Every structure is written in C-alpha cells, then in structure tokens.
Amino acid sequence: GDTIRRHIFVQVATSVKAIAAGSYFSLALKNDGVLYGTGWNGFGQLGTGDNTRRIGFVPVSGDVKAIAVGYFHSFALKSNNTLWVAGYNKSGMLGLGDNTDRFSFVQAASTVKAMAGGMAHSIFFKSDGTLWVTGDNWAGQLGTGDGRNLNRFEKKIGLRSYKNNLYVCADLNLGPEAPLYSNRDALGLWETFGLIDLGNNRVALRSYATGLYVCAENAGASRAVANRSAIGAWETFRLYTSASGVVAFKFELNNKYLRFDSFIPEQALPGPGVYFYIINAW
Hints:
This protein is an all-beta fold and 282 residues long. It has one helix spanning 217-220, and strands at residues 16-21, 25-30, 35-39, 54-61, 64-69, 73-78, 83-87, 102-109, 112-117, 121-126, 131-135, 150-161, 167-170, 180-184, 192-199, 202-207, 213-215, 225-228, 237-241, 247-251, 257-258, 265-267, 276-280. The protein is elongated and about 65 Å long.
C-alpha cells in the first residue's frame, strides 16, 4: 500500500496460484478465481475501469483460471475458456478490430487454451491447436510472413475447394480488385488468407495478396473480391462446418452460400459446390 522500494521480498498476499508482471504493473490470481492488480494503470491495463494507479492489489475480475500480460496490456482466461483483454491497444494488440485502449476487461475470443503478450502484439492458441495472432508486426513477430500489422486475431489459412480440389486464389492477374477463383494447385501468397473470428460463428477473410478483406461484391450479386479495408456487412460470413469437417461460407445479408465456381453467394443449401477444406498455412 505504498511506493517505498524494497530490497528483499515481503509478503503482500496469500492463496495466490498465478502471477504476471508487465511494465510497472502486476497481476495476481488467487485460488478462488479472483484476479487482482496493482501498479501503473495509464492505459487501463489493470482492468479497473479507469486509468488510476493502484499502490496495493485490488480485485478486478472473477472466474479467472489463467493470466498473462504484455508490456502495457493484460489477458484473463475465464473458466469457460473465453479470453478477456484490457489495456494499451495502439497497435491492435487487444484484437478487437480497433486501436482504442480498454480500461475494463472485454471478451476477445473463445475456446482459448493459452495466451501470451509481447511489447505490442498478442498470440493465443485454441483448444483445437490453432494459433491466432494480432498487433504490431514490424519485426515479423506475428509469423504471418507478410509483415502487415493486425488489429483482430486471425489464423493463417489456405482454402481448397471440395469440388475441384484446387486452392482459392485472390487472383490479381484477373483484375486489380483481386477476384476469388478456385484455380491453383499450390499454396502461395495469393492463395493465403487470414481467417478472423468475429464471434457467434461469424468470420471474415483477409487476403495476403492484397492485405484487404474479402467482400461479397454488390451485396452478394457479383463475384467476391479481396479489396476492402474494413469489415462490414458485405465482408461478414457465417461459417458452416459439416460433420466431415469441411466448411462453407454463408453470406450474412442473403443467407446463401458462396460457390466454388462463381464465388457468388447464390446457393441456398450446403453441398459439394460450396464446401472448402481449411488448410493450416503457418
């Protein structure tokens, strides 16, 4: 409860099962699942709902089973495996789709197993073993291979058509807007996408060829293209997963599935013509 330097360890809490320390702030998780924070709080990294410094541990969240921190941002993994984040977000390291700091913990992902933070980036992996990343990427710390910064958690994938067994390509040879075609037999930069989990089984796709989001052009009346700088209704799909593990993308606005040949959301029911394999591209 003070700011006096200590040269030996002193006891400040009991029943603690996990700890994490960032830049001038600390988190402690107790056995009962209550998360406590103390220290500098200029970006809201303690999750107290403000940016006021604390000089003693205060409770900030409950039902927490694991914690981690970055330089000025924090993670709390809840007992239901949802990931909650707070703090500095200038580089998008909270993965919320913007660059606004958060003074309280907000949910960023689900089915998370473990997480870690760097100075300005964040990573986690899910219970299915898939790796997801966001934040600053100037040194390649996200591992995506394209050097672009991200402000939403995404995993690096390829898509292969169930129908013709060819990879989906954002084909800049066929137009400056990078229209999608299932026409490649190998996975390269133009055939690589970032899959963004928007929650509630809603997803978006970001092309590594353009760095832009896939859009169901003309509200789903024209071939999908990878040319949008932000995610809106035209860039949002429902992910349908079949019993055999193949997936289909249903356009939010017309509730129809994206076909492998036209890349127009025009098929009413799932079937071979709309199924794709998701390929891990890390």
